[in-house]
Write a structure and sequence with these properties.
- About 45% of the residues lie in helices and about 20% in strands.
- By secondary structure, the chain is of the alpha/beta class.
């Protein structure tokens, strides 16, 4: 009997405590390998493995590149590296950030879906925004089983909610029941294998740090009139998958929600820069008007005073717009 024997888990805000509780519920003979990505940023100290090891008798370690994944072991993504599992081997990628994160959850889910297909289980835990939703859908496309923490039970419900809205999730459970559910799923016979879509393989290569070229992106999607917040490159809109996503030629990837959040910040910054420039122009033309008046050039002075007034009016309009955006 072919069983489900690989579990990929992803979480963000509140996920450290969630994984601790999950580890406590796993029996010593747990019959699957587990890979975990939690958003830890680029400068983490890789202490999560030691924290989780206190809660379980299963071996827990920070993932190492080239290591073979073993049943009953737990592997934690290190800081500033994507964690992938490809044909049973742990791979650490320095590819571009996805949804502003490295490690990101989606690359792990895609790699497990590609390599294990019907034997894979993907789990989204508590977290903000929606990293993991696209990857969970990829596991589903590859024949695997998908699970989310009940949003009402999550410290931050965004990630479970977005996963539920993005694809037909197989199971939803509160944290206290997830360990028992995963134990049951790993004891069941896996469903039939399905072909792996080509676009999933491409995104795995990008996460590993392989070149993302215009020719490759044709497999991913179609160019749109949007620029990447990270590098300014042209974004392509994903052609496959259930959610609106974008990726640039460098490889940075965004869901629509994350991209909108970044664009909002860019607009706010641009408005504040424009306000500073206009206010400085008002100060300069006011001084120039004073100098012209002192020199008896009254016509020039009046023109400069009018210009100063216009600048100050424009500055006030921008200031009110910024204040409105901050509310």
């Amino acid at each position: 009997m072919t069983r489900r024997d690989v579990i990929a888990i992803g979480g963000s805000f509140g996920a450290v405590q969630a994984v601790r509780e999950l580890c406590r519920s796993l029996e010593p003979d747990f019959a699957a390998g587990i890979a975990v990505v939690i958003h830890v940023g680029a400068h983490g100290n890789n202490l999560l493995a030691s924290i989780f090891q206190q809660e379980t008798t299963l071996p827990v370690a920070t993932a190492s590149d080239g290591e073979r994944m073993q049943t009953g072991h737990v592997y934690i993504a290190p800081a500033d590296h994507h964690l992938l599992v490809i044909d049973g081997i742990i791979r650490l990628g320095r590819g571009p950030r996805e949804n502003l994160a490295r490690p990101a959850i989606d690359p792990l889910f895609r790699s497990v879906g590609m390599s294990y297909g019907h034997r894979a289980i993907g789990v989204v835990l508590t977290g903000l925004l929606n990293d993991g939703a696209s990857g969970l859908a990829a596991i589903k496309r590859c024949g695997g089983v998908t699970v989310v923490q009940n949003p009402n039970d999550a410290q931050a419900p965004d990630m479970p909610l977005d996963a539920l809205q993005t694809s037909a999730i197989d199971y939803r459970a509160p944290l206290r029941d997830l360990g028992a559910l995963l134990t049951t799923l790993t004891a069941q016979e896996a469903g039939p294998p399905v072909p792996v879509p080509a676009d999933i393989r491409l995104e795995i290569d990008i996460a590993l740090g392989r070149p993302s070229t215009a020719e490759n992106l044709v497999l991913f999607g179609d160019p749109v009139a949007l620029s990447c917040p990270a590098c300014g490159g042209v974004l392509s809109q994903a052609r496959h998958g259930p959610m609106l996503r974008f990726r640039c030629q460098v490889g940075h990837a965004y869901t629509a929600d994350t991209l909108a959040l970044q664009k909002e910040g860019s607009v706010d910054e641009a408005m504040r820069v424009a306000l500073r420039i206009i206010e400085e122009r008002a100060v300069l033309t006011d001084k120039m008007a004073g100098e012209a008046e002192a020199q008896g050039r009254h016509h020039v002075a009046r023109t400069l005073i009018e210009r100063t007034t216009e600048y100050r009016q424009q500055a006030e309009v921008l200031r009110q717009a910024i204040l409105g955006a901050d509310r």
